[in-house]
Description:
37% of the residues lie in helices and 14% in strands. The protein has 2 domains: 11-53 and 312-411, Aspartate Aminotransferase, domain 1; 58-309, Type I PLP-dependent aspartate aminotransferase-like (Major domain) (Aspartate Aminotransferase, domain 2). The strands form 3 sheets. It has a 7-stranded mixed sheet, with helices on both faces. It has helices spanning 6-10, 16-30, 56-68, 84-94, 114-121, 140-148, 201-214, 254-257, 281-292, 298-307, 310-336, 359-370, 396-406; strands at 43-44, 108-111, 130-135, 162-166, 184-189, 217-221, 247-252, 265-268, 340-343, 349-353, 372-373, 375-376, 387-391. The termini are far apart. It contains 13 helices and 13 strands. β9 and β10 form a beta hairpin.
Amino acid sequence: MISRNPRLGALKAGYLFPEIARRRREFAAAYPEDPAKPETRIISLGVGNTTEPILPHIDRGLIEGARQLGVPEGYSGYQDEGLLELREKISRVFYPETGGDPFSADEIFISDGAKCDIGRLQLLFGPDSKVAVQDPSYPVYVDGSVLTGAAGPWTGEGYGGISYLPCTAENSYFPDLSKLQENSVFYFCSPNNPTGAVAAKAQLEELVTAAKKKGCLIVFDAAYAEYIRDPALPKTIFAIPGARECAVEVNSFSKPAGFTGVRLGWTVVPKELHYAGGESINADWNRVMGTIFNGASNIAQAGGLAALSPEGLQEIRQLCDFYLGNAKCIRTALEGLGVSCVGGDNSPYIWARFPGRDSWDVFAEILKSCRVLTTPGAGFGPSGQSFIRFSAFGHRQDVEEACERLGKLGQR
Ligand code: PL4
C-alpha cells in the first residue's frame, strides 16, 4: 500500500467552501425547499461565485476563439507561456501606474486562475519558508502552506509556522507591520477577501518599505482590483515604487469578466526578484510553470483579449458596477438593522460584525431564519470570529429578496 502524504492529515477540517455547501445540503435535507413557497428557497450570498452572463463583446471573443480552432488557418495547440499579445496587453492595460516602465511579456505568466497560481507559487518557497497572512484571509494561503509543509503544526487556534497578522476594526483592517517577521512570504489581498477593505496608497508604501527592510516577499492578490472605484486607491502593488524588488502579483479574469468557469488569470513576476542565494525568482517560476502547467485554454485567452479591448473594458466596468450595486443593497440593509459593516464600496464583499457571537452560530441563524446562505468569518482565520461575510455575487432580484429577508434578524 502507498502511504499518504502526512501534510494532508495536517489540514484542519474541510476546505471552507465545500464545508459551507455541505452545511447547506444538511440544512436543506432537514428543512426542504417547497417549490410552492418561494420564501423557502435558499438564496446564496455565500461563495463569491459570479452569476451574470458574460457580456456580448467578451462572449463573442470566446466564440470566435472556439471557431478558430475548427479551421486549419486558425487552429493552435499548446501555448505554454500564453499568447504574447495577451501578455503585452495585460502589461499595457493593468500596469500603467508603474512609472512608465511596463513589464516585459516574460514577466507576465498567463494561467488558469489566481487560486491555481497561488498553489503553484507555494512550490517556490518550500517547507522551511516563513509564512505570514492577513488575519482573516482567503483560505488558500494557509491551506496551501499546510500542503507544502510550511505551515507547521496546528496549535488549536492556527498553525505554528504561520504569522497571523490581525486585520480588525481596531486597526482599520490594515495589519501592524512591526509584527511581520523577517524573511517571510506575506500573502496580502487588496481589495480584501473577506473584509472588503482596500489598502490606501500610503499603507501599500508602508508595506513595500517593510517588506524590503525585512527581506520579505509579498504575494499580492489583486483578484478584485477592478472593483475599486475610488481613484485614490491603487489597483496594483506595482503602483508603489520599489514593489518590483519585493512583490509578485496574482490576478484573474474571474471576477471582473465573469470567467470563474472559463478560467483565466495571470501572475506578474518581476525580473528584479531574487532569493537570498541570488537565484532569479522569475526563472524559477518559469521552470515551475513549464513543469506542471500546460498553458491556459486558447479559447479563454481569446476571451481575455476581447476583454482587454475598449469595448471589453467597458463591459468589465459594467459587470463590476452591477455587483457593486448588489453590495450597496446588502450593506444598506444590514446597516438599517444596526449591524456594523465594512466593504462593499470598492469590493464585492461586506464584512458584518455580530459582537460577542460565534460566527458559525450566526451563519446557522441567518440560514434558518432568513434562508440566506453566508460565509462565517471564523472560516477565514481567528480574527474572523464574530463576523459574517456577505458576497455581492447574485442576481439582483435574489439579492433584493435576501435583503428583505434579513429584516427577520430584527433590530440590533
Ligand atoms: C470558491 C482573493 C471566492 N472554489 O477564480 P480564480 O482562481 O482566478 O480566483 C480565486 C480567488 C483568488 N483570490 C481571491 C479570491 O477570493 C478568489 C475566489 N474566492 C470566495 O468566495 O472567496 C471563491 C471561492 C472557489 C475557491 O476556493 O477559490
